[in-house]
Amino acid sequence: MIDMTQEMSSRTASTSRAQRLAADAAEAADVRRWRTHPDVVALRIERVRAQVDRLCWAGIILGLAFTAANVQWFAAAGSEFGSLPWLTAWLLDPTVCLVLLAILRAEQVTARYQVRTGRWVRAAKWLTLAATYVMNTWSSWAAGSPAGVVLHSVPPMVVFVAAEAVTDLRDKLTDAVQVALVNTAKPADVHELATADRERPARRLFADYLADARLAWKPDVRVTPAWVREVTGCSRGLSSRLAAELSAEVAEGVRHGS
């Protein structure tokens, strides 16, 4: 009788442990399913995007604030404190910086939706950054001061790199959302995705851009990211991958042809 009781207790304990493990497994599967859900992934990426934007904007604004004093000193050229030339010199750096900030603000939106901007936009951004750098470092170059050149070069260069990097970062974050959507799509969701696609502009994939690049390529064409952007209209972040893929295909075709 005692042996039967012990055996029943052991079976009950084993069943309880199995039930707990089954409940834990079901909970873990549910958590994993929601963590990989496209909407949840998109929400988490949007939070990261907001943090990236805030940090980059803070660094850019601080760097431009540092350059403002240097540019004012450069533009004032020893004018008397409080005089009209001294006061007017404070307008030079904000004139350049406001144009740069407007461009970066616009790219914040275009990069999110992977819309390619034109050459004039990049030319204006590079011109404003180059002007800021020259005005910050001219006096140090003229005085032959390496320490001054380094000191006044760091903030403009940081602003320049941040302005270029933040656009690519936003582009890649958008790619991450698209990858999450594609990887989690199930056969049962195909009809819903197709319906949604009919209701909004079609989203082009890597293969679509690559197919366009293949059609546009000719034997005398040198494949570069800039050429890929021109013929496909893809984003800067995607053009490098497309150029590398198409270059590899071209090289493979040449080897087989030879």
TrEMBL record:
UniProt KW keywords: Membrane, Transmembrane, Transmembrane helix
Segments crossing the lipid bilayer: 55-75, 87-106
The name this protein goes by in its record: DUF2637 domain-containing protein
